[in-house]
Amino acid sequence: MSTTLPPELECEIFEAAAQLNPEDNPTLLRVAKRVYSWIRPFLFRIIRGANGKLWSALLLAMETEPDFLRKSVRFVCIEHGTNQFASAKQIKRLLQICTEVVDVALTSTVPMDGYLDLLAQMPRLRRLTCSLRELFGDESAPIDPRHEGLSRITHLEILDETLINDDGFWLELEGVAGLPSLTHLAITPSPEARNWQNDELEVAWSRIQRILDATPQTRLRVLALVWDKHEARLHFDAVNSATLRDPRLVAGSFEDLSLKKHVYDAWCEWEESAMGLVSDYWEKAELFLERRRKGEVPASRIWMEDWLYDENESSSDSETSSSEGTSDWE
Question: Region (Disordered): which ranges (predicted)?
Fold first, then answer.
């Protein structure tokens, strides 16, 4: 009886191992020639700019095998710290080569001059995370939702600081929500102070309502208010005070503690979702909306994560117990 696996099954096993544990890929490359041909594309499938160990091989591939890179790269995150390992020119060249990407995240680590035109050359690009003002040039430049670079985007997370009193930017957001392919939009409303004032809340909800009103439910399926976990705790009560009842509105947080490395990492959810290890907040939003449709959570609930409610209930119970204990001692 043969102990040799069929090549197709063997390939699937090695590809799964490469996706789940990319740090082991250099070792897998040395197993056999056939494994080398299967695994090598996974070396560059997900590119995080702050991964210094990647750049020497990446820059070499950009110079000698650009077509191989184009076929391999699917996810690119140009995060803070990328400019420690590559120049602005090299980063731009990377984006010029990687036209088959499906997900791009851009921070202000380098100037984004010309990036919109690069996005327009990525026919498979569906997810984009960036500051729109920086993408379009500067804070005074108008945001043009008709630009071809945004025409195929289905999931857009806007990193711009969305101040409640920034009338011009909120007006532009109404136009952005009408992007021709957009189904999911995420923003991070920022009050002037840490604690929301009543007048700020009223203004915030009216602005969000206008974005929702500007786009039919058949097109925009999710409008997500997102913060990191610490900020989400701070905004829990303010979001619960919302008077909006649009079924597309959700609020949530992104994971910032790496599942694999157990360290703070603002982009760990992005990376681990690309690896297939976790659900990102877009997928969590879809599951939450389904729960709401089925009546498993109240129709008025906006926060999609149960842990926030669990924490607040525990806090309330602790305060009650403390109050009762104090009363007993008096």
Answer: 311-330
- pLDDT by residue, tens only, the chain of 330 residues: 456 778 778 777 777 777 777 666 767 777 777 877 777 878 899 999 998 888 998 999 999 999 999 999 999 999 999 999 999 999 999 999 999 999 999 997 788 989 999 999 999 999 999 999 899 986 667 888 899 999 999 999 999 888 887 888 888 999 999 999 999 999 998 865 456 667 778 888 999 999 999 899 889 999 999 999 989 999 999 899 888 889 999 999 998 877 666 778 889 899 999 988 889 999 999 999 999 999 999 999 999 999 999 998 876 655 555 555 543 333
Phi and psi based region of residue 166 (left: phi greater than 0; alpha: psi -120 to 50; beta: remaining) = beta
Give CA–CA dist 77/128, Å, rounded: 10
Residues 157 and 251 in one domain: yes
Rg (alpha carbons) of the chain, rounded to whole number: 23
Considering the domain architecture, whether residues 82 and 182 belong to the same structural domain is answered as no
Is 2 domain-assigned?
Answer: no
Domain count, the chain: 3
- The domain of 237 spans 128-330
Q: How deeply is 81 buried, as exposed, middle or buried, from its count of CB atoms within 10 A (0-12, 13-18, 19+)?
A: middle
Q: Is there a single domain that holds both residue 194 and residue 94?
A: no
User: pTM for the complete prediction?
Assistant: 0.87
Are 330 and 248 members of one domain?
A: yes
| Dihedral sign (CA 25, 26, 32, 33) | positive
Note whether residue 34 is domain-resident. yes
Same domain, 81 and 214: no
Q: Is residue 243 part of a domain?
A: yes
Contact present, 324 and 315 (Cβ < 8 Å): no
CA-CA-CA-CA dihedral for 259, 261, 265, 267, to nearest 10: -60
Distance of CA 175 to the CA centre of its chain: 21
